[in-house]
Amino acid sequence: MSHDHGHHKETFITKYIFSIDHKMIAKQYLISGLLMGIVGIVLSLFFRMQIAWPEESFEVFKIFLGEKLAPGGVMRNDIYLALVTIHGTIMVFFVLTAGLSGTFSNLLIPLQIGARDMASGFMNMLSFWMFFVSCVIMIISLFVESGPASAGWTIYPPLSALPEAIPGSGLGMTLWLVSMAIFIASSLMGSLNYIVTVINLRTKGMSMTRLPLTVWAFFVTAIIGVISFPVLFSAALLLIFDRSFGTSFYLSDIFIKGEVLHYQGGSPVLFEHLFWFLGHPEVYIVLLPALGITSEIIATNARKPIFGYRAMVTSIIAIAFLSTIVWGHHMFVSGMNPFLGSVFTFTTLLIAIPSAVKAFNYITTLWKGNLQLNPAMLFSIGLVSTFITGGLTGIILGDSTLDINVHDTYFVVAHFHLVMGISALYGFFAGVYHWFPRMFGRMMNKTLGYVHFWVTAVCAYGVFFPMHFIGMAGLPRRYYTNSAFPLFDELADTNVLITVFALVGAAFQIVFFWNFFYSIFKGKKAVMNPWKSNTLEWTAPVEHIHGNWPGEIPEVHRWAYDYSKPGHDDDFVPQNVPMKEGEEELHH
């Protein structure tokens, strides 16, 4: 099957803007995700400075927030909540979901399964542009006069349902909802595309049991997305009705300034159920791609077959299934029936099993491997570390009797930032360092990569490790200052320490950005397969061509992890190398 694309010349617009080529769309997602990441990080630094040095005047607040939101350089208390809200929204949805699924599913699914492109290039382009529009609307909501949405990234009613409740419930909240609705549509189109591509477009010989673990992770992630995103869409739709059309799905007897509002019969807990039915799987929509990327990178750089391939696939599927039936553990303090609480406790603790399988298999793959400690490998090992430390506190929070004591304290913040935020970010960084030569045909600077890793790793633990302790001491989250409570006075220094780590860690992300953008144009030219890897994406030329491979699509003869295989001269055997006489596949 030969593809002759010589007849239509690509213009700048069809190549770089409205591209239907999955490799270009991956780069668009990557760079949009990085730019949104800058916004998310800057917002977090603003509110960290406020919590560490409450009521101080900062020049930087005057410049960025303006006189209205930070009079005299002192942050207004409601703006603190707005920054927390938008930071959470941007990091969870726009950076991690798009940066991992958008970038790496797009880049790797067609290349690793031996497909010419995604099932629908047009739908792929549409899903990126809807994502981009939703990013723009979310950024615009920061500049609304009444202030951005400030009901927390979980936007619980009644704060989010009553435009008159607080300044941040007005136009900022409406824009938040519009942005999220468009984002969900974009995610759904992307997910459907990924699923169809994996099922229908695998090359000859690429059975499901020969798929690299990365593709398994992206595939299962897309399935979770298709199951749970529509539920958030319906939650947002009902919220829009409550806000604008006088319904009361989420509102019951409410008083504002002593005046009785005419709502009755609704329940804010209904919103929590709908929200967390997406909100918990969302954690894994973010985390599974990072775990898939890590599996690939650890096997490649340990020069060993991944340990327990089938157990890894099973655990991905088990995590996906369990993650959709545990949402109630976010609601142990909502007055839930204690029996129901015990059911959710049980299903939540079950997730520890497939997660532990993954952790043990990573460690066993590393054990006695010939480790190549490049930046991608370091970030992958870092992910294993934060996945374990963050996961251990999940066992505490998953237990209703224990959770009630630390719910809504900094303990929760520490837990989910480590297990989801930092782990997913490490997976993202690992993926960028590893597949950068595949994307841009050049290498990133290794020394800068090491600096970036070590400072990030120290600062990430420096920020989130102490939070466990101030959380257990009872410090509530989302308070813009704790100076009104003398009992928290001795925790003030810890908050200053956390903020210093956050500022240093954020500053050193500039090293990464410099390395990334400089290397695109000036990096060392990369060879075709710089990491001596087995998967198909390294058999395709880096030049931007339609259809990925100039001639025939490679045929697959073996699984993706034949590293250091006895009887072969090289320590890696790519998937498209035919089997020798008397050789067998390891994972059967």
Automatic annotation (TrEMBL):
Which protein are we looking at?
A: Cytochrome c oxidase, subunit I
Tell me its EC number(s), please. 1.9.3.1
* InterPro entries named among the record's database cross-references: Cyt_c_oxase-like_su1_dom, Cyt_c_oxase-like_su1_sf, Cyt_C_Oxase_1, Cyt_c_Oxase_su1_BS
Per the similarity annotation, which family is this?
A: Belongs to the heme-copper respiratory oxidase family.
Compartment list: Membrane
Q: Which GO terms describe its biological process?
A: aerobic respiration; electron transport coupled proton transport; respiratory electron transport chain
Indicate how the chain sits in the lipid bilayer: Multi-pass membrane protein
Write out the transmembrane intervals: 29-47, 79-109, 121-144, 175-201, 213-241, 274-295, 307-327, 339-364, 376-398, 410-436, 448-475, 495-518
For this UniProt entry, the molecular function terms from Gene Ontology, in alphabetical order, are: cytochrome-c oxidase activity; heme binding; oxidoreductase activity
